[in-house]
């Protein structure tokens, strides 16, 4: 049914409640958890053909759906590693984008970090897709009554501005 899904930093899949339009999915999801390990298998309809006379929706898109896996392992009370594998497909067989990525988060003393890396491959309109994203966010919180902190953010995405040559979040 209709549900919100939010994994890790919500960069790839999230409810994004901070935006003017939140995000929810018509999805099926299976969640398994044991101890410090969690896994989710899911499938969701992203775009549904509206049945117009031409059988497409605005922009010529056809049915679009995603299938995915998200797993995380809290290997230490303060550190977690996550894996995401995602496939977004359309009823047009020349359009499919697959994403795989790792996210590491943790805290040690006043130091906290998040590191993310993703790679995409597939086809859009028959052209090969190959793109990547890397992000890091280290920070330090000082031990003071009002908790001042310093955080640095860095992100890099491959891309040339075209639909087939740019990382798609």
How would you name the oligomeric state of the polypeptide chains in this document? Answer: single chain
> Which percent band covers the strand fraction?
over 45%
Largest sheet: 10 strands, antiparallel
What is the approximate shape?
globular
- The radius of gyration over CA amounts to 19 Å
Describe this structure in a few short sentences.
With 169 residues, the chain is mostly beta strands. Helix content is 0%, strand content 57%.
Features:
mainly beta; single chain
Describe the structure.
It is a single chain. By secondary structure, the protein is mainly β. Helix content is 0%, strand content 57%. The protein has no helices and ten strands. Strands 1, 2, 3, 4, 5, 6, 7, 8, 9 and 10 form a ten-stranded antiparallel beta sheet that branches. The relative contact order is 0.13.
């Amino acid at each position: 049914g209709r549900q919100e899904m939010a994994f890790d930093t919500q960069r790839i899949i999230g409810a994004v409640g901070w935006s003017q339009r939140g995000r929810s999915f018509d999805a099926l999801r299976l969640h398994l958890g044991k101890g410090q390990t969690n896994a989710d298998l899911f499938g969701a309809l992203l775009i549904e053909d509206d049945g117009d006379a031409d059988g497409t929706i605005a922009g010529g898109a056809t049915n679009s759906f995603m299938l995915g896996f998200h797993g995380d392992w809290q290997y230490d009370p303060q550190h977690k590693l996550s894996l995401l594998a995602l496939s977004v497909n359309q009823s047009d067989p020349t359009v499919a984008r697959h994403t795989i990525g790792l996210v590491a988060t943790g805290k040690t003393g006043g130091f906290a970090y998040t590191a993310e890396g993703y790679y995409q491959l597939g086809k859009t309109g028959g052209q090969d897709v190959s793109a990547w994203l890397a992000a890091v966010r280290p920070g330090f919180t000082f031990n003071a009554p009002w908790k001042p902190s310093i955080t640095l953010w860095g992100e890099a995405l491959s891309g040339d501005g075209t639909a087939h040559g740019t990382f798609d979040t």
